[in-house]
Design brief:
The chain is mainly alpha-helical. The protein has 11 helices and 5 strands, in the order αααααααβαβααββαβ.
């Protein structure tokens, strides 16, 4: 059953497992001190059990909302990921822990400085900044871009030619400033880097400008899991105030396809022991 099929089925099933999962969470938390008093191994077991219950609760909500469309499911995912990040940091000790979250630009770059904000979409970058009161000494958002990646969910991986970034986009503007096809790391501080970047750029084509520029600034290319190069000029760009969206930005001017790791087929029909059951 596909994710979409499951979502449709959940929509027409009036019963929800939310109450049962919440009950399980309450029972776990009532015994938290008992579980956690038995050393680090038991603390991790408790953490895993609690996290699995939270995943089940949020997943049930996500799939029920999926079929309705809109931005609700996106925001459920982002909130769940950030809540999980907070729990991990707390578990390992906030004062002595550091973490790296590797995610797509649309998750990492602060949504408040893109057109995502107009659609009332939030993301990891925004929520983490808000949680730390926008203290840049506590969190750094790093974006990636390039000038020159499956077309449908579930299709096989393929190597595809990424067309040059459209004129007027951030990817194109940065490319024009690079003479030797090298990479660049921009650290945005007092807008110095941004001012140097946008000075003396080539005149934009008016038709392209209307597609890529809004009050949020030029568009930045977003190549995701699903990408169609033939529609490059009609989408795939997120209007961004780039020096506000990120704290740092790494531009890799020319990229090459990765060689995927060998992924052997597992013919054993039995589910792994760690596969969730009873849901």
């Amino acid at each position: 059953m596909s994710v979409e099929d499951y979502a449709r089925a959940a929509l027409f099933v009036p019963e929800s497992c939310e109450d049962e999962v919440i009950g399980m969470l309450i029972e776990l938390r009532n015994k938290a001190s008992q579980y956690q008093a038995n050393g680090i191994d038991k603390r991790e077991e408790y953490f895993n059990a609690e996290q699995n219950a939270i995943v089940a609760k949020n997943a049930e909500l996500y799939y029920r909302k999926m079929i309705q469309g809109g931005t609700t499911t996106w925001n459920i995912r982002e909130t769940h990921m950030v809540d999980t990040l907070k729990r991990l940091m707390k578990f390992h000790g906030i004062d002595r822990s550091k973490c790296i979250v590797w995610a797509h630009n649309t998750h990492v770059g602060d949504a408040r400085h893109t057109d995502m904000a107009d659609a009332k979409m939030i993301n990891i970058g925004q929520l983490v900044r808000e949680h730390t009161n926008d203290n840049k000494n506590k969190v750094w958002l790093v974006g990636f871009g390039t000038y020159n990646s499956a077309r449908e969910w579930g299709e096989k991986m393929e190597i595809m030619q990424v067309p040059p970034a459209v004129e007027g986009s951030w990817d194109n503007i940065i490319h024009q400033q690079i003479d030797d096809d090298s990479n660049r790391l921009f650290i945005f501080k007092n807008n110095v880097t941004l001012l140097r970047l946008t000075k003396n750029t080539k005149k934009e084509n008016s038709e392209t400008r209307t597609r890529t520029r809004t009050e949020k600034g030029p568009g930045q290319r977003a190549i995701g899991v699903v990408y169609n190069p033939e529609y490059e000029r009609y989408g795939n760009y997120v209007p961004s105030i780039i020096d506000k969206r990120y704290d740092m930005y790494l531009h890799i001017d020319k990229t090459h396809a990765l060689s995927p790791l060998h992924m052997p087929e597992v013919k054993d029909e039995e589910l792994p022991e760690t596969f969730p059951t009873g849901l």
